[in-house]
Amino acid sequence: MIRVGVNGYGTIGKRVADAIRAQPDMKLTGVAKTRPNYEAEAAVRKGYPLYAAIPERSDQFTDAGIDLAGEVEDLIIASDVIVDATPSGVGEANCELYETYDTPAILQGGESADAVDTSFVARANYDKAEGADIVRVVSCNTTGLSRLLAPLQEEYGVEKARVTLIRRGGDPGQVDRGPINDILPDPVTVPSHHGPDVKTIYPDVDIDTVGVKVPATLMHLHSVNVTLASQPTVAEVRQLLSDESRLFLVPEVAGIDGTGKLKEFAMDTGRPRGDLWENCIWDESIAVEGNDLYLFQSIHQEADVVPENIDAIRALTGRETQEDSMAITDDRLGVGLESLFDGPRRRVVPHSADD
Ligand SMILES: NC(=O)C1=CN([C@@H]2O[C@H](COP(=O)(O)OP(=O)(O)OC[C@H]3O[C@@H](n4cnc5c(N)ncnc54)[C@H](O)[C@@H]3O)[C@@H](O)[C@H]2O)C=CC1
Ligand SMILES: O=C(OP(=O)(O)O)[C@H](O)COP(=O)(O)O
């Protein structure tokens, strides 16, 4: 069993902790929290050992009636791997602590690519993480773009990608973010940071991106144009993308016209927190004009990096191949939604730790 601790139990950390618990080859050693808030209560109810991320605040937990298993250093010592899901910049600062205890760590997309041994997307560069000390699971947008480019690059070759990212202003729980009533070029500089971030995964891909921020919280939306090195038909592209477990082609029959209905659909299927681990590509949007492919895809920013963290744990420890790790992760989480509209219905929600 791989013993995994989660340091930083917020939007991403709590989802990764649940995903670890669903894996047959992993044991969640515990989670580190800074304060005894509603998320700490939930962790206790789930039976997750709780550690004080900031030792000086341990008394706050005791005063709140929450028993601590120890301090963050105890969690690090008890773990083979740490998933750091602290706010942007904190993960990089924590690396010294991880190195002190010779415990490899997985950081998230808010950290700098320069701070890690490798950036990571399971479908794109799984093997690069083996034996690394610090791995970065790239941000939700970079994950979504890299997952899409992988089959296109392998099957047809990518000459140039141009993507407009319509970015949600903040997560639903981030009430201090916006915009409330505006549409912002964000970043106003062109190209945006997303293209260079994809190049930390695919150094040779020619990609330019621009970003816009809108008053929305549920998901991001990408308007994608990829100039291919050959001229596939729409049907060929559709088949190629639907063969990818983490690309969900939203069928016309579903009547899903936007991110609101996508999230409603996810909740209706029983997904925990209404999470969508897959890229959601509008099937009707797939178009080919000569060498140019066009499509829309939506990315659930709170969720698509979760299976990537699980695969990064295995990749780092070198215990499974890319194909086997992704298959285990997908099966245990219930990744893959096509079966709800086509073929034998199968499970699309996580296994429990017991089954
Ligand atoms: N929320 C999103 O849409 C996505 C976030 N990310 C990245 O994931 C990372 C975490 O982001 P979120 O989960 O959204 O943040 P969050 O703010 O929801 O959660 C961070 C958690 O870390 C805790 N924390 C703060 N300082 C800490 C410390 N010193 N030690 C331990 N815990 C500490 C906070 O109390 C909070 O519970 C960031 O790098 C972010 O860029 C990546 C993809 C999507
Ligand atoms: O959108 C994201 O990052 P990105 O747009 O910089 O790739 C992630 O969801 C993190 O978002 P945030 O940095 O706006 O919280």
Automatic annotation (TrEMBL):
<keyword id="KW-0560">Oxidoreductase</keyword>
<feature type="binding site">
    <location>
        <position position="301"/>
    </location>
    <ligand>
        <name>NAD(+)</name>
    </ligand>
</feature>
<dbReference type="InterPro" id="IPR036291">
    <property type="entry name" value="NAD(P)-bd_dom_sf"/>
</dbReference>
<feature type="binding site">
    <location>
        <begin position="194"/>
        <end position="195"/>
    </location>
    <ligand>
        <name>D-glyceraldehyde 3-phosphate</name>
    </ligand>
</feature>
<comment type="subunit">
    <text>Homotetramer.</text>
</comment>
<protein>
    <recommendedName>
        <fullName>Glyceraldehyde-3-phosphate dehydrogenase</fullName>
        <ecNumber>1.2.1.59</ecNumber>
    </recommendedName>
</protein>
<keyword id="KW-0324">Glycolysis</keyword>
<keyword id="KW-0963">Cytoplasm</keyword>
<dbReference type="GO" id="GO:0004365">
    <property type="term" value="F:glyceraldehyde-3-phosphate dehydrogenase (NAD+) (phosphorylating) activity"/>
</dbReference>
<comment type="pathway">
    <text>Carbohydrate degradation; glycolysis; pyruvate from D-glyceraldehyde 3-phosphate: step 1/5.</text>
</comment>
<feature type="active site" description="Nucleophile">
    <location>
        <position position="140"/>
    </location>
</feature>
<dbReference type="InterPro" id="IPR020828">
    <property type="entry name" value="GlycerAld_3-P_DH_NAD(P)-bd"/>
</dbReference>
<dbReference type="Pfam" id="PF01113">
    <property type="entry name" value="DapB_N"/>
</dbReference>
<keyword id="KW-0520">NAD</keyword>
<keyword id="KW-0521">NADP</keyword>
<feature type="binding site">
    <location>
        <begin position="139"/>
        <end position="141"/>
    </location>
    <ligand>
        <name>D-glyceraldehyde 3-phosphate</name>
    </ligand>
</feature>
<dbReference type="InterPro" id="IPR006436">
    <property type="entry name" value="Glyceraldehyde-3-P_DH_2_arc"/>
</dbReference>
<dbReference type="GO" id="GO:0006096">
    <property type="term" value="P:glycolytic process"/>
</dbReference>
<dbReference type="GO" id="GO:0009089">
    <property type="term" value="P:lysine biosynthetic process via diaminopimelate"/>
</dbReference>
<dbReference type="Pfam" id="PF02800">
    <property type="entry name" value="Gp_dh_C"/>
</dbReference>
<dbReference type="GO" id="GO:0005737">
    <property type="term" value="C:cytoplasm"/>
</dbReference>
<feature type="domain" description="Glyceraldehyde 3-phosphate dehydrogenase NAD(P) binding">
    <location>
        <begin position="2"/>
        <end position="140"/>
    </location>
</feature>
<dbReference type="InterPro" id="IPR000846">
    <property type="entry name" value="DapB_N"/>
</dbReference>
<dbReference type="InterPro" id="IPR020831">
    <property type="entry name" value="GlycerAld/Erythrose_P_DH"/>
</dbReference>
<dbReference type="GO" id="GO:0008839">
    <property type="term" value="F:4-hydroxy-tetrahydrodipicolinate reductase"/>
</dbReference>
<dbReference type="GO" id="GO:0050661">
    <property type="term" value="F:NADP binding"/>
</dbReference>
<dbReference type="InterPro" id="IPR020829">
    <property type="entry name" value="GlycerAld_3-P_DH_cat"/>
</dbReference>
<feature type="binding site">
    <location>
        <position position="168"/>
    </location>
    <ligand>
        <name>NAD(+)</name>
    </ligand>
</feature>
<feature type="binding site">
    <location>
        <begin position="11"/>
        <end position="12"/>
    </location>
    <ligand>
        <name>NAD(+)</name>
    </ligand>
</feature>
<comment type="similarity">
    <text>Belongs to the glyceraldehyde-3-phosphate dehydrogenase family.</text>
</comment>
<dbReference type="GO" id="GO:0051287">
    <property type="term" value="F:NAD binding"/>
</dbReference>
<dbReference type="InterPro" id="IPR020830">
    <property type="entry name" value="GlycerAld_3-P_DH_AS"/>
</dbReference>
<feature type="binding site">
    <location>
        <position position="110"/>
    </location>
    <ligand>
        <name>NAD(+)</name>
    </ligand>
</feature>
